[in-house]
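--- STAGE predict ---
source: upstream dedup step, 1 unique chain passed
mode: sequence only
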Amino acid sequence: MSSEDELIRLAQAGDTDAFCLLAEAYERRIYSLAFHYCRERQDTEDLSQEVWLKAYAALPRFRYESTFYTWLRKITINCFLNHRRARLSPWRKETLDRTAIDGHAIHSESCLDGFESTLQNRLVVEKVMQALADVTPQQRLIFLLKYQEGMTYAEISNELGCSLGTVKKSVSRTVAKLREKLGVDEEPENCLASAASGILG
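--- STAGE serialize ---
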């Protein structure tokens, strides 16, 4: 039994310290995914908290049929989808303010090391974030799952309950939007998506 499996077993038995250790291992990754989906710090914190509360409540039903993170990511995606359905107003295309960027940097230092070191790279991060604000919430989520989480088209299709063609078309449109924002003309699927995945961490 791995150390993580042991922590899961202890947490399932009611050991809150063990659950806290599990959360510490993945909190940055969940926060980063939520931040790039929401783009607003308060919503990010609310969603992240909701993910962990749901994970804690559901932990007794974890059956080791997948990795703990895969199971946790499924809960995260469901929280995102519920959040999207709950919002009646259209997605607000607000420019990300400096406070939010700095706040994100605190939570994602390991992801942004080397990207946030110069003004030029800060502008690239802002352009990527702005481009993601210009697509629909579903397109943004699909793009994040593909390039931040490294999921396959088939995995995303299965997770979101949509067709493979829908997923591929969504990624293509988002990459085109990023290419336009960043002024990248050649091989967007390779160079742009690779750069974006590094920035998004």
